[in-house]
Amino acid sequence: MIAAAGRRGRVVWQLALTLWVGGVWSAHFVLLPALKHIGLAPLLVEDVSNLLRPIMLGFAAVCAVLQLLVLLGYEGRRFWRDMRGQLLLVVLVATGCYVLAAQLPQGLFLSLFCYLVVAFAGLGLILQPRPDEGR
What we know:
The protein is built from 4 helices and no strands. The chain is mostly helical. Helix 1 runs antiparallel to helix 2, helix 2 (about 40-75) runs antiparallel to helix 3 and helix 3 runs antiparallel to helix 4 (about 110-125). It is elongated.
């Protein structure tokens, strides 16, 4: 029973990490530059990015909460001392800041910064071992 729960946690961790980090990076560094490259109007590309970025960050926040729950199962209350827990908390804080910055009239630069913080925190999280490997 415990081995099955550990295996499920490993699968949830890896799948969530792959989906949200890959989605955030591919949206910002592949899809939007490709739309600019094929010659779409700049306002159309901006509309796509204004639609896509909040969706990707919402998805990243949900996956980060799932990963925090998996990490909590392995590390207990000490999850915030672990680098993975700290990176996941950075993702959640940056996502919240993105939502707040989107409400500001001139918050475009700050919201883009928050998006990139989430992207690079995800990259740092990929470089960390899975929670079951840390034992």
